[in-house]
Amino acid sequence: MNRVTLLSRSPRETEGVGRCLGSILARGAFVALRGELGSGKTCFTRGIVAGSAPSSAHLVASPTYAVMNEYPGETPVYHFDFYRLAGGGGEIAELGFEEYFTGDGICVCEWSERLGDLLPEEHLTVTMEHGGDDRRTITIEAAGPGMEAVLGRFAELAKPAHFL
Ligand SMILES: Nc1ncnc2c1ncn2[C@@H]1O[C@H](COP(=O)(O)OP(=O)(O)O)[C@@H](O)[C@H]1O
Ligand SMILES: [Mg+2]
């Protein structure tokens, strides 16, 4: 499977969708988040951490100023926010973040558009869009066979009520 679209009606539902995905991600997974400010990227990340490194979920906050937050767990989660960095990937490479992309944890990246060529070949792209009030559409796309398998498993596990 390489694409699913879901509807969330509340921050809690967005976290629930993220938690479902986080529970099946393994070390080495890369999640590229897209969507304007306030579309729910950090909320979704909190869900991913709740599913993959639960003892750290309460720590999830926007790393807009820190650029990266690390959430410890059996599989650690590295949470990036490249909003303030230049596009094309040059600045990101200079800061040495690439080594995390092939490291021991799960990488979740807000403003992944800035990565340019640094985006790993195997990844999931999660695009969040405002749908008015508390509605958000969440589209998850898989690149690479490993991630297609992950997305297939996600589609089996996620609550049918969420699918569009
Ligand atoms: N369905 C929803 N999913 C996620 N966030 C929502 C939803 N409805 C309302 N919100 C609100 O939208 C904001 C999303 O913020 P945040 O996750 O920080 O977005 P981003 O990281 O994309 O800038 C929060 O204030 C949250 O309470
Ligand atoms: Mg954010």
Main beta-sheet annotation: 7 strands, mixed
Give the overall average pLDDT.
94
Query: Proportion of β residues?
Result: 25-35%
Q: Which spans of ≥5 residues are poorly predicted at pLDDT below 50?
A: none
| Helix content class | 25-40%
Number of helical runs? 5
Sheet/helix structural class: alpha/beta
Query: What order do the helices and strands follow?
Result: EHEHEEHHEEEH
Explain what the structure shows.
The chain is an alpha/beta fold and 164 residues long. 28% of the residues lie in helices and 25% in strands. It is built from 5 helices and 7 strands, in the order βαβαββααβββα. It has helices at 11-22, 41-52, 90-94, 98-101, 145-157, and strands spanning 3-8, 30-34, 68-71, 77-81, 106-110, 123-130, 136-143. A hairpin with a 5-residue loop joins β6 (123-130) and β7. The chain is globular, with a radius of gyration of 14 Å. Adenosine-5'-diphosphate is lined by residues 8-11, 13-14, 35, 37-43, 62, 110, 134, 136.
